[in-house]
Amino acid sequence: MAAAFRSWLAGRRLLIVLDNAANASQVWSLPPATAGCLVIVTSRHHPPGLTIREGARRLTLDVFDQDGGLVLPVSAPRNA
To answer: What residue spans define the domains of the chain?
Structure first.
């Protein structure tokens, strides 16, 4: 299935969000090794091996408080 997914992605420009990854092998088996795909990985843990790839960076975010979790700033386009 991973190979079919990579084949479908080939030649496309996409942003892929992989939510709540448990380990690095879940992540690195999916995206193709071609330009045009950007992958954002979320995880509640710090799986080793995710940031060893070229260009990968770790960004640690704080947990939202209750008010911040309920109300997120959203910018909607205005009709002129």
So the answer is: 2-59
